[in-house]
Amino acid sequence: MDIQGIMARLEARHPGEAEYLQAVREVLLSIKDVYDNHPEFERAKLIERLVEPERVVVFRVPWVDDRGEVQVNLGYRVQFNSAIGPYKGGLRFHASVNLSILKFLAFEQTFKNALTTLPMGGGKGGSDFSPRGKSDAEIMRFCQAFMNELFRYIGPETDIPAGDIGVGAREIGYLFGQYKKLTRDWSGVLTGKGLEYGGSLVRPEATGYGGLYFVREMLADRGVDIRGKRIAVSGFGNVAWGATRKATELGAKVVTISGPDGYIFDEEGVCGEKIDYMLELRASGNDICSPYAERFPGSVFVPGRRPWEVKCDIALPCATQNELNGEDAQHLIDNGVQCVAEISNMGCTPEAIDAFVARKMLYAPGKAVNAGGVATSGLEMSQNAMHLSWSAEEVDRNLHAIMHGIHEQCVRYGTEPDGYVNYMKGANVAGFMKVAKAMMAQGIV
Ligand code: 2IT
What we know:
Layout: H1 3-13, H2 18-36, H3 39-43, H4 46-50, E1 55-64, E2 70-81, E3 87-93, H5 99-115, E4 121-127, H6 136-150, E5 159-162, H7 169-183, H8 203-221, E6 230-233, H9 238-249, E7 253-259, E8 262-265, H10 273-283, H11 291-295, E9 300-303, E10 314-316, H12 326-334, E11 339-341, H13 350-358, E12 362-364, H14 366-369, H15 371-386, H16 392-414, H17 423-441
Parallel strand pairs: 3-4, 3-5, 6-7, 6-10, 10-11, 11-12
Antiparallel strand pairs: 1-2, 2-4, 7-8, 8-9
The chain binds (2Z)-2-iminopentanedioic acid (2IT).
The site of (2Z)-2-iminopentanedioic acid has 11 residues, from strand 3 and helix 15.
Protein backbone atom coordinates (compact mmCIF):
# COMPACT_ATOMS: atom_id res chain seq x y z
CA MET A 1 0.00 0.00 0.00
CA ASP A 2 1.34 3.38 -1.04
CA ILE A 3 0.31 5.30 2.07
CA GLN A 4 2.04 8.50 1.00
CA GLY A 5 0.38 8.46 -2.39
CA ILE A 6 -3.06 7.76 -0.94
CA MET A 7 -2.68 10.49 1.67
CA ALA A 8 -1.40 13.00 -0.89
CA ARG A 9 -4.43 12.38 -3.09
CA LEU A 10 -6.79 12.66 -0.13
CA GLU A 11 -5.16 15.89 1.03
CA ALA A 12 -5.51 17.38 -2.44
CA ARG A 13 -9.13 16.35 -2.66
CA HIS A 14 -10.09 17.37 0.88
CA PRO A 15 -7.73 20.22 1.80
CA GLY A 16 -7.76 21.34 5.42
CA GLU A 17 -9.79 18.39 6.75
CA ALA A 18 -7.21 17.82 9.45
CA GLU A 19 -9.10 15.48 11.80
CA TYR A 20 -10.35 13.28 8.96
CA LEU A 21 -6.88 12.98 7.44
CA GLN A 22 -5.42 12.23 10.88
CA ALA A 23 -7.88 9.40 11.48
CA VAL A 24 -7.30 7.89 8.03
CA ARG A 25 -3.51 8.05 8.36
CA GLU A 26 -3.59 6.25 11.71
CA VAL A 27 -5.64 3.37 10.29
CA LEU A 28 -3.58 3.05 7.09
CA LEU A 29 -0.32 2.86 9.07
CA SER A 30 -1.78 0.11 11.26
CA ILE A 31 -3.20 -2.06 8.50
CA LYS A 32 -0.46 -1.73 5.88
CA ASP A 33 1.13 -5.13 6.51
CA VAL A 34 -2.14 -7.04 6.51
CA TYR A 35 -3.35 -5.18 3.47
CA ASP A 36 -0.21 -5.98 1.53
CA ASN A 37 -0.82 -9.68 2.18
CA HIS A 38 -4.08 -9.43 0.24
CA PRO A 39 -3.40 -8.47 -3.39
CA GLU A 40 -7.11 -8.88 -4.14
CA PHE A 41 -7.79 -5.84 -1.92
CA GLU A 42 -5.46 -3.74 -4.07
CA ARG A 43 -7.11 -4.91 -7.30
CA ALA A 44 -10.53 -3.98 -5.89
CA LYS A 45 -9.25 -0.51 -4.88
CA LEU A 46 -10.56 -1.37 -1.46
CA ILE A 47 -8.72 1.35 0.43
CA GLU A 48 -9.56 4.05 -2.09
CA ARG A 49 -13.22 3.15 -1.59
CA LEU A 50 -13.06 2.65 2.16
CA VAL A 51 -11.61 6.07 2.95
CA GLU A 52 -14.41 7.99 1.19
CA PRO A 53 -17.88 8.20 2.72
CA GLU A 54 -20.61 6.53 0.71
CA ARG A 55 -22.66 9.70 1.00
CA VAL A 56 -22.67 13.06 2.81
CA VAL A 57 -25.82 15.11 3.31
CA VAL A 58 -25.42 18.79 4.21
CA PHE A 59 -28.41 21.02 4.84
CA ARG A 60 -29.38 24.33 6.35
CA VAL A 61 -31.26 24.40 9.65
CA PRO A 62 -33.28 27.60 10.07
CA TRP A 63 -34.94 28.18 13.44
CA VAL A 64 -36.26 31.05 15.55
CA ASP A 65 -34.64 31.91 18.90
CA ASP A 66 -36.43 33.17 22.03
CA ARG A 67 -36.02 36.79 20.96
CA GLY A 68 -37.81 36.07 17.70
CA GLU A 69 -34.63 36.26 15.64
CA VAL A 70 -34.01 33.79 12.82
CA GLN A 71 -30.89 31.66 13.22
CA VAL A 72 -29.32 29.52 10.51
CA ASN A 73 -27.09 26.55 11.35
CA LEU A 74 -25.65 23.80 9.19
CA GLY A 75 -26.78 20.20 9.58
CA TYR A 76 -24.89 17.11 8.39
CA ARG A 77 -25.18 13.36 8.13
CA VAL A 78 -22.11 11.45 6.97
CA GLN A 79 -23.14 7.96 5.81
CA PHE A 80 -19.70 6.46 5.74
CA ASN A 81 -19.96 2.72 5.26
CA SER A 82 -22.90 0.30 5.12
CA ALA A 83 -21.01 -2.91 4.30
CA ILE A 84 -21.90 -4.70 7.53
CA GLY A 85 -25.18 -3.02 8.48
CA PRO A 86 -27.23 0.17 8.32
CA TYR A 87 -25.36 3.38 9.10
CA LYS A 88 -25.12 3.82 12.86
CA GLY A 89 -23.56 6.58 14.89
CA GLY A 90 -24.27 9.65 16.94
CA LEU A 91 -25.18 13.26 16.33
CA ARG A 92 -22.93 16.00 17.71
CA PHE A 93 -24.23 19.50 18.41
CA HIS A 94 -21.26 21.77 19.11
CA ALA A 95 -19.93 25.06 17.77
CA SER A 96 -16.79 23.28 16.50
CA VAL A 97 -18.66 20.81 14.27
CA ASN A 98 -17.57 20.76 10.63
CA LEU A 99 -17.25 18.22 7.85
CA SER A 100 -13.73 17.18 8.82
CA ILE A 101 -14.76 16.33 12.38
CA LEU A 102 -17.85 14.41 11.31
CA LYS A 103 -15.95 12.49 8.63
CA PHE A 104 -13.28 11.46 11.11
CA LEU A 105 -15.96 10.38 13.58
CA ALA A 106 -17.90 8.42 10.94
CA PHE A 107 -14.71 6.76 9.66
CA GLU A 108 -13.77 5.69 13.20
CA GLN A 109 -17.33 4.57 13.84
CA THR A 110 -17.14 2.15 10.90
CA PHE A 111 -14.34 0.15 12.55
CA LYS A 112 -15.69 0.57 16.07
CA ASN A 113 -19.05 -0.82 15.04
CA ALA A 114 -17.33 -3.73 13.30
CA LEU A 115 -15.51 -4.54 16.55
CA THR A 116 -18.79 -4.81 18.47
CA THR A 117 -19.69 -7.86 16.30
CA LEU A 118 -23.19 -6.40 15.82
CA PRO A 119 -24.44 -5.68 12.28
CA MET A 120 -23.96 -1.91 12.19
CA GLY A 121 -22.31 0.24 9.53
CA GLY A 122 -20.66 3.59 10.26
CA GLY A 123 -22.22 7.04 10.26
CA LYS A 124 -22.12 10.31 12.14
CA GLY A 125 -23.89 13.63 11.96
CA GLY A 126 -24.68 16.81 13.76
CA SER A 127 -24.62 20.54 13.57
CA ASP A 128 -22.54 23.60 14.43
CA PHE A 129 -25.43 24.60 16.70
CA SER A 130 -24.12 25.34 20.20
CA PRO A 131 -26.46 24.20 23.00
CA ARG A 132 -24.49 26.37 25.46
CA GLY A 133 -26.84 28.81 27.19
CA LYS A 134 -29.86 27.88 25.04
CA SER A 135 -33.31 27.61 26.62
CA ASP A 136 -35.23 24.37 26.58
CA ALA A 137 -37.66 25.85 24.05
CA GLU A 138 -34.77 26.81 21.76
CA ILE A 139 -33.30 23.32 21.99
CA MET A 140 -36.68 21.84 21.05
CA ARG A 141 -37.18 24.17 18.09
CA PHE A 142 -33.68 23.50 16.87
CA CYS A 143 -34.12 19.70 17.13
CA GLN A 144 -37.42 19.92 15.23
CA ALA A 145 -35.89 22.09 12.50
CA PHE A 146 -32.92 19.68 12.23
CA MET A 147 -35.23 16.66 11.90
CA ASN A 148 -37.40 18.46 9.32
CA GLU A 149 -34.62 17.72 6.86
CA LEU A 150 -32.81 14.73 8.36
CA PHE A 151 -35.90 12.49 8.41
CA ARG A 152 -35.64 11.92 4.64
CA TYR A 153 -32.28 10.18 4.98
CA ILE A 154 -32.71 7.96 8.03
CA GLY A 155 -34.82 4.95 9.03
CA PRO A 156 -34.65 1.92 11.31
CA GLU A 157 -33.09 -0.21 8.55
CA THR A 158 -31.23 2.63 6.80
CA ASP A 159 -29.49 4.91 9.27
CA ILE A 160 -30.00 5.07 13.03
CA PRO A 161 -28.57 8.19 14.71
CA ALA A 162 -27.98 8.54 18.46
CA GLY A 163 -26.37 11.06 20.81
CA ASP A 164 -22.85 12.42 21.07
CA ILE A 165 -21.50 15.68 22.49
CA GLY A 166 -24.42 18.09 23.02
CA VAL A 167 -27.05 15.47 22.24
CA GLY A 168 -28.46 13.57 25.22
CA ALA A 169 -31.80 12.06 26.23
CA ARG A 170 -33.63 15.38 25.99
CA GLU A 171 -32.49 16.09 22.43
CA ILE A 172 -33.14 12.50 21.34
CA GLY A 173 -36.68 12.88 22.69
CA TYR A 174 -37.36 16.01 20.64
CA LEU A 175 -35.76 14.51 17.53
CA PHE A 176 -37.77 11.32 17.92
CA GLY A 177 -41.04 13.22 18.42
CA GLN A 178 -40.50 15.20 15.24
CA TYR A 179 -39.48 12.12 13.22
CA LYS A 180 -42.66 10.36 14.32
CA LYS A 181 -44.80 13.37 13.47
CA LEU A 182 -43.30 13.69 9.99
CA THR A 183 -43.37 10.00 9.06
CA ARG A 184 -46.35 8.79 11.11
CA ASP A 185 -44.13 5.85 11.97
CA TRP A 186 -43.15 4.66 15.43
CA SER A 187 -39.84 2.93 14.88
CA GLY A 188 -36.47 2.43 16.48
CA VAL A 189 -34.94 5.09 14.22
CA LEU A 190 -32.91 6.67 17.02
CA THR A 191 -31.16 5.11 20.01
CA GLY A 192 -30.60 6.63 23.42
CA LYS A 193 -34.35 7.03 23.77
CA GLY A 194 -36.13 7.40 27.11
CA LEU A 195 -37.09 4.19 28.89
CA GLU A 196 -40.79 4.95 28.44
CA TYR A 197 -40.57 4.91 24.66
CA GLY A 198 -38.24 2.17 23.54
CA GLY A 199 -34.98 3.14 25.22
CA SER A 200 -32.70 0.52 26.74
CA LEU A 201 -31.67 0.20 30.35
CA VAL A 202 -27.92 0.82 30.81
CA ARG A 203 -27.61 2.84 27.56
CA PRO A 204 -26.83 6.13 29.44
CA GLU A 205 -24.07 4.43 31.44
CA ALA A 206 -22.84 2.14 28.68
CA THR A 207 -19.95 4.12 27.16
CA GLY A 208 -18.28 4.72 30.51
CA TYR A 209 -19.11 1.28 31.93
CA GLY A 210 -17.83 -0.49 28.82
CA GLY A 211 -14.68 1.63 28.94
CA LEU A 212 -13.95 0.54 32.48
CA TYR A 213 -14.64 -3.14 31.69
CA PHE A 214 -12.06 -2.79 28.93
CA VAL A 215 -9.51 -1.02 31.15
CA ARG A 216 -9.93 -3.69 33.80
CA GLU A 217 -9.06 -6.35 31.22
CA MET A 218 -6.04 -4.39 29.98
CA LEU A 219 -4.70 -4.20 33.54
CA ALA A 220 -5.58 -7.81 34.34
CA ASP A 221 -3.51 -8.92 31.34
CA ARG A 222 -0.49 -7.47 33.13
CA GLY A 223 -1.58 -8.84 36.49
CA VAL A 224 -2.60 -5.42 37.81
CA ASP A 225 -5.74 -4.85 39.90
CA ILE A 226 -7.77 -1.69 39.28
CA ARG A 227 -8.68 -1.40 42.96
CA GLY A 228 -6.97 1.51 44.71
CA LYS A 229 -5.76 3.10 41.46
CA ARG A 230 -5.83 6.89 40.98
CA ILE A 231 -7.60 7.89 37.81
CA ALA A 232 -7.56 11.22 35.94
CA VAL A 233 -10.77 11.72 33.94
CA SER A 234 -11.41 14.61 31.56
CA GLY A 235 -14.84 15.96 30.66
CA PHE A 236 -17.94 16.06 32.82
CA GLY A 237 -20.61 14.84 30.40
CA ASN A 238 -22.35 11.52 29.95
CA VAL A 239 -19.16 9.57 29.17
CA ALA A 240 -17.13 11.01 32.08
CA TRP A 241 -20.10 10.37 34.38
CA GLY A 242 -20.44 6.69 33.44
CA ALA A 243 -16.69 6.14 33.64
CA THR A 244 -16.48 7.80 37.05
CA ARG A 245 -19.39 5.75 38.39
CA LYS A 246 -17.96 2.43 37.26
CA ALA A 247 -14.38 3.29 38.25
CA THR A 248 -15.57 4.16 41.76
CA GLU A 249 -17.69 1.01 41.93
CA LEU A 250 -14.63 -1.07 40.98
CA GLY A 251 -12.67 0.46 43.86
CA ALA A 252 -10.57 3.04 42.01
CA LYS A 253 -10.45 6.76 42.83
CA VAL A 254 -11.24 9.42 40.21
CA VAL A 255 -9.34 12.58 41.17
CA THR A 256 -10.20 14.90 38.26
CA ILE A 257 -12.97 15.94 35.91
CA SER A 258 -12.74 18.84 33.48
CA GLY A 259 -14.55 21.27 31.21
CA PRO A 260 -13.58 23.86 28.62
CA ASP A 261 -12.92 26.26 31.55
CA GLY A 262 -10.28 24.09 33.29
CA TYR A 263 -10.24 21.07 35.57
CA ILE A 264 -11.35 20.05 39.05
CA PHE A 265 -8.84 18.29 41.30
CA ASP A 266 -10.56 16.35 44.08
CA GLU A 267 -8.09 14.44 46.25
CA GLU A 268 -10.93 12.74 48.14
CA GLY A 269 -12.27 11.34 44.88
CA VAL A 270 -15.27 12.16 42.74
CA CYS A 271 -17.73 9.76 44.37
CA GLY A 272 -21.21 9.47 45.92
CA GLU A 273 -23.32 12.61 45.53
CA LYS A 274 -20.50 14.26 43.58
CA ILE A 275 -21.15 11.87 40.71
CA ASP A 276 -24.85 12.78 40.73
CA TYR A 277 -23.81 16.42 40.76
CA MET A 278 -22.06 15.89 37.40
CA LEU A 279 -25.53 15.31 35.93
CA GLU A 280 -26.72 18.62 37.40
CA LEU A 281 -23.70 20.42 35.97
CA ARG A 282 -24.44 18.93 32.60
CA ALA A 283 -28.15 19.80 32.73
CA SER A 284 -27.32 23.44 33.49
CA GLY A 285 -26.32 23.81 29.83
CA ASN A 286 -23.41 26.04 30.82
CA ASP A 287 -20.60 23.81 29.59
CA ILE A 288 -18.34 24.60 32.59
CA CYS A 289 -17.08 22.48 35.48
CA SER A 290 -15.96 25.26 37.88
CA PRO A 291 -19.18 25.30 40.00
CA TYR A 292 -18.14 21.86 41.33
CA ALA A 293 -15.39 23.48 43.45
CA GLU A 294 -17.86 25.90 45.08
CA ARG A 295 -20.21 23.06 45.86
CA PHE A 296 -17.55 20.69 47.25
CA PRO A 297 -14.99 22.70 49.26
CA GLY A 298 -12.43 19.86 49.48
CA SER A 299 -11.79 20.21 45.75
CA VAL A 300 -9.79 22.74 43.74
CA PHE A 301 -10.61 24.36 40.40
CA VAL A 302 -7.57 24.82 38.16
CA PRO A 303 -8.60 27.31 35.44
CA GLY A 304 -7.48 27.05 31.85
CA ARG A 305 -5.53 23.80 32.26
CA ARG A 306 -6.00 20.11 31.46
CA PRO A 307 -6.02 17.32 34.05
CA TRP A 308 -3.02 15.47 32.60
CA GLU A 309 -0.58 17.32 34.87
CA VAL A 310 -1.98 15.50 37.91
CA LYS A 311 -0.24 12.40 39.28
CA CYS A 312 -2.30 9.34 38.39
CA ASP A 313 -2.03 5.63 37.55
CA ILE A 314 -4.65 5.68 34.81
CA ALA A 315 -5.64 8.48 32.43
CA LEU A 316 -9.05 8.39 30.78
CA PRO A 317 -9.73 11.09 28.19
CA CYS A 318 -13.55 11.37 28.17
CA ALA A 319 -14.14 14.77 26.54
CA THR A 320 -13.26 15.21 22.87
CA GLN A 321 -10.74 14.57 20.07
CA ASN A 322 -7.06 15.50 20.43
CA GLU A 323 -7.50 16.48 24.07
CA LEU A 324 -4.24 14.80 25.14
CA ASN A 325 -1.14 15.89 23.20
CA GLY A 326 2.54 14.95 23.19
CA GLU A 327 3.36 17.32 26.02
CA ASP A 328 0.50 15.99 28.15
CA ALA A 329 1.71 12.46 27.42
CA GLN A 330 5.16 13.40 28.70
CA HIS A 331 3.67 14.81 31.93
CA LEU A 332 1.73 11.61 32.48
CA ILE A 333 4.77 9.44 31.77
CA ASP A 334 6.95 11.53 34.12
CA ASN A 335 4.29 11.05 36.80
CA GLY A 336 4.30 7.27 36.37
CA VAL A 337 1.05 6.65 34.52
CA GLN A 338 0.48 2.93 33.80
CA CYS A 339 -2.48 2.95 31.45
CA VAL A 340 -4.06 5.44 29.06
CA ALA A 341 -7.40 4.51 27.52
CA GLU A 342 -9.40 6.83 25.28
CA ILE A 343 -13.08 6.86 26.11
CA SER A 344 -13.47 9.94 23.90
CA ASN A 345 -13.09 9.45 20.15
CA MET A 346 -9.44 9.96 19.06
CA GLY A 347 -8.70 11.54 22.43
CA CYS A 348 -4.91 11.40 21.94
CA THR A 349 -2.86 13.13 19.25
CA PRO A 350 -0.50 10.97 17.13
CA GLU A 351 2.46 12.37 19.12
CA ALA A 352 0.91 11.22 22.39
CA ILE A 353 0.16 7.75 20.99
CA ASP A 354 3.72 7.44 19.66
CA ALA A 355 5.10 8.30 23.12
CA PHE A 356 2.98 5.59 24.80
CA VAL A 357 3.58 2.90 22.19
CA ALA A 358 7.34 3.59 22.00
CA ARG A 359 7.51 2.88 25.75
CA LYS A 360 5.36 -0.24 25.36
CA MET A 361 2.81 1.21 27.72
CA LEU A 362 -0.81 0.17 28.05
CA TYR A 363 -2.59 2.43 25.58
CA ALA A 364 -5.91 1.72 23.84
CA PRO A 365 -7.81 3.75 21.25
CA GLY A 366 -11.36 5.06 21.45
CA LYS A 367 -12.72 2.74 18.78
CA ALA A 368 -12.07 -0.18 21.14
CA VAL A 369 -12.48 1.39 24.57
CA ASN A 370 -15.64 3.41 23.96
CA ALA A 371 -17.45 0.89 21.77
CA GLY A 372 -19.76 -0.06 24.65
CA GLY A 373 -21.91 2.98 23.89
CA VAL A 374 -22.75 2.08 20.34
CA ALA A 375 -22.86 -1.63 21.23
CA THR A 376 -25.63 -0.91 23.72
CA SER A 377 -27.34 1.17 21.03
CA GLY A 378 -27.21 -2.02 18.96
CA LEU A 379 -28.86 -3.85 21.85
CA GLU A 380 -31.52 -1.12 21.96
CA MET A 381 -32.15 -1.75 18.25
CA SER A 382 -32.51 -5.48 18.90
CA GLN A 383 -35.03 -4.87 21.66
CA ASN A 384 -37.00 -2.44 19.46
CA ALA A 385 -37.02 -4.94 16.60
CA MET A 386 -38.31 -7.65 18.94
CA HIS A 387 -40.80 -5.26 20.58
CA LEU A 388 -39.64 -6.09 24.07
CA SER A 389 -37.21 -4.81 26.68
CA TRP A 390 -34.47 -6.55 28.59
CA SER A 391 -33.56 -6.17 32.25
CA ALA A 392 -30.54 -4.10 33.27
CA GLU A 393 -28.72 -7.33 34.15
CA GLU A 394 -29.33 -8.77 30.69
CA VAL A 395 -28.08 -5.64 28.91
CA ASP A 396 -25.06 -5.31 31.20
CA ARG A 397 -24.18 -8.97 30.67
CA ASN A 398 -24.26 -8.47 26.90
CA LEU A 399 -22.20 -5.28 27.19
CA HIS A 400 -19.66 -7.11 29.31
CA ALA A 401 -19.38 -9.95 26.80
CA ILE A 402 -18.99 -7.52 23.89
CA MET A 403 -16.20 -5.56 25.63
CA HIS A 404 -14.47 -8.83 26.49
CA GLY A 405 -14.71 -9.84 22.83
CA ILE A 406 -13.23 -6.53 21.66
CA HIS A 407 -10.34 -6.94 24.08
CA GLU A 408 -9.74 -10.43 22.73
CA GLN A 409 -9.72 -9.17 19.14
CA CYS A 410 -7.17 -6.48 20.07
CA VAL A 411 -4.91 -9.06 21.70
CA ARG A 412 -5.28 -11.45 18.75
CA TYR A 413 -4.43 -8.90 16.05
CA GLY A 414 -2.23 -6.54 18.08
CA THR A 415 0.23 -8.77 19.94
CA GLU A 416 3.79 -8.08 18.78
CA PRO A 417 6.60 -10.70 18.72
CA ASP A 418 7.88 -9.56 22.13
CA GLY A 419 4.43 -10.03 23.65
CA TYR A 420 3.52 -6.32 23.78
CA VAL A 421 -0.14 -5.75 22.94
CA ASN A 422 -0.46 -2.83 20.55
CA TYR A 423 -4.17 -2.14 21.05
CA MET A 424 -4.23 0.51 18.35
CA LYS A 425 -2.97 -1.93 15.77
CA GLY A 426 -5.18 -4.75 17.05
CA ALA A 427 -8.34 -2.64 16.95
CA ASN A 428 -7.58 -1.20 13.52
CA VAL A 429 -6.68 -4.54 11.93
CA ALA A 430 -9.61 -6.46 13.45
CA GLY A 431 -12.12 -3.75 12.51
CA PHE A 432 -10.66 -3.33 9.04
CA MET A 433 -10.61 -7.04 8.20
CA LYS A 434 -14.30 -7.44 8.96
CA VAL A 435 -15.32 -4.43 6.88
CA ALA A 436 -12.89 -5.39 4.10
CA LYS A 437 -14.26 -8.93 3.78
CA ALA A 438 -17.83 -7.63 3.68
CA MET A 439 -16.92 -5.09 0.99
CA MET A 440 -15.10 -7.68 -1.08
CA ALA A 441 -18.12 -10.00 -0.96
CA GLN A 442 -20.44 -7.25 -2.17
CA GLY A 443 -18.54 -6.27 -5.32
CA ILE A 444 -17.62 -2.83 -6.61
CA VAL A 445 -20.37 -0.68 -5.08
O1 2IT B 1 -19.13 7.77 19.36
C1 2IT B 1 -20.04 6.95 19.57
O2 2IT B 1 -19.87 5.74 19.47
C2 2IT B 1 -21.35 7.48 19.97
N1 2IT B 1 -21.50 8.69 20.09
C3 2IT B 1 -22.52 6.55 20.16
C4 2IT B 1 -23.12 6.19 18.85
C5 2IT B 1 -24.38 5.38 18.94
O3 2IT B 1 -24.96 5.15 17.86
O4 2IT B 1 -24.80 4.99 20.02
